[in-house]
Fold this protein.
Amino acid sequence: MSYLKKFGETYRSEAPCTLRIHPGLVLPESDRDASGWYQRSRFGIDRNQLDEVHRLVDLYQIRVEGLHVHSSSMILDESVFGSAAELLMQLALQFPDVRVLDLGGGIRPPYREDDDHPDLDALASSIKKPLERFEEKSGRKLQLWFEPVRYLVAESGILLTQVNVVKEVGGRIVAGVDTGFHQLIRPKLYDAWHEIRNVSNPQGDKMPIDISGCLCEEDDLARQRTLPEVREGDLLAILNAGAYGYSMASTYNSRPLPGELLL
């Protein structure tokens, strides 16, 4: 709220403004909504503060042209996006200059063959009817924006790594590779799953194996994966590394950033 006040004092109506709204619990019951992401989210102006928002907008004549909600890839129920859009449309009726509703990112790409992820046709259907009702009631046309970069690029990136050593540790077979969480932090940070393929020996006998990174601390990229026999010198492909891969990589432990090749 303090940012909105500073914005109004500095720009008044000279620059357009987009308000990020915290929608609270958009959908009370949703089996696939990861226990109510919108309720737990810390992002945006609380709906209880809308009276103060209107006061500041009127006081400084702020030109509100957009409304935004921060979505998450934890949301798997398409109707949740529709409910968020409908809430923003209700608010848009209170701001006559609004022309854009931004539903943020949050469209999850599949990381496994059987992964649950939003169906784009169902998502579009959940938004279409509220939009038609808004246009009929207000006589205004709105632009609906998404920020689906992860959905677009995640599957386009592959991290190639070479196996330095294969050994047995505590009854488990471990392959030590020449990458680690300094180049792909998602498994360490989020316990994220990335499919791994043995490029060098795709037809080998299947075996359970841990894939361990090269940093001198706990650096597991995968545990107990069933892969074709992994040998020293083999190339492994870690899939779905196109989003939050290189962009979150670091030179931690004096390690270089990975090279990038565009095909």
Q: What stands out?
A: The radius of gyration is 23 Å. The mean pLDDT is 90. Helices lie at 2-11, 37-40, 50-60, 78-92, 120-138, 149-153, 186-190.
